[in-house]
Amino acid sequence: MICENHTRVTEFILLGFTNNPEMQVPLFILFLVIYTVTLLGNFLIITVTSVDPALQTPMYFFLRNLSLLEVCFTLVMVPKMLVDLVSPRKTISFVGCGIQMYFFFFFGSSECFLLSMMAYDRFVAIGNPLRYSVVMNRSLCLWMAVGSWMSGVPVSMLQTAWLMALPFCGPNTIDHFFCDGPPVLKLVTQDTTMYEMQALASTLLFIMFPFSLILVSYTRIIITILRMSSASGRQKAFSTCSSHLIVVSLFYGTASLTYLRPKSNQSPESKKLVSLSYTVITPMLNPIIYSLRNNEVKGAVKRTVSRKVLQKLDVF
């Protein structure tokens, strides 16, 4: 459809969280602190799982990939959001909006599948511990990680290319803090039923399918744990899964509220808060959850810090 008697939109205005100037600077400081903690926490996980010999296992290989994904995921949205909070001109070009949307879908879909790979890893570790190192060998782990990252390509290309090819002939104000699918969809000036049907199908495939794999893995994990005769063994098995379960609950619980109901009657403010939780808050909490609830990670952090301190003392 060509925009007859109307000029096609060439840029969008992002309303962000508030137009109140008195709130923008405090929000900027708050989100800057959160983003800094996110980067430091995830880079710390990447570092300790890379250099510590005790963490060279499939579980921490996938955790390292998760932390790298979280860094990339927040990089797509947070810097632009911070700039918009202190800038009088809160615009993004049409192409820039499409690029941001593509990488948002890409990293989000990749994280869904990576979380399911992590659940399978825990299932093998608990359900078949004697063959764990044989089953979860280096080659398989590498292919599982590559597959998780590449799984985001089809959905991101389809969703972005289809949506951005639709006519945008009228308003160009996005009531959100980044170019997400549902708020951008509201600006399309033609019937979007076909796109919404495709978006729902993609959501079921790329969000609910890996979630169902997680459910299957944890169902079998729970059955295995309940069959254990040792109480200490059951407690240890549950403790190895608790961090991953918390992360999965945070990510899927909030993301499903947005993408299973792309045109719901939620207020824009509510949708922004839900989006904020899985785009900004969850990536900050993930390294905290894994470090506070995992003695091996805490020990590795202490060893890494001690090693760096000793190296500096040797220099002097």
Automatic annotation (TrEMBL):
PROSITE patterns: G_PROTEIN_RECEP_F1_1, G_PROTEIN_RECEP_F1_2. The chain crosses the membrane at residues 27-49, 61-79, 99-120, 140-162, 204-226, 238-261, 273-292. It is found in: Cell membrane. One of its GO terms (molecular function) is G protein-coupled receptor activity. It comes from the Eukaryota. Residues 41-290 form the G-protein coupled receptors family 1 profile domain. Keywords: Cell membrane, G-protein coupled receptor, Membrane, Olfaction, Receptor, Sensory transduction, Transducer, Transmembrane, Transmembrane helix. It is a multi-pass membrane protein. Coiled coil: none annotated. One of its GO terms (cellular component) is plasma membrane. Belongs to the G-protein coupled receptor 1 family. Putative odorant or sperm cell receptor. This is Olfactory receptor. It comes from Ursus maritimus (Polar bear). The gene is LOC103682021.
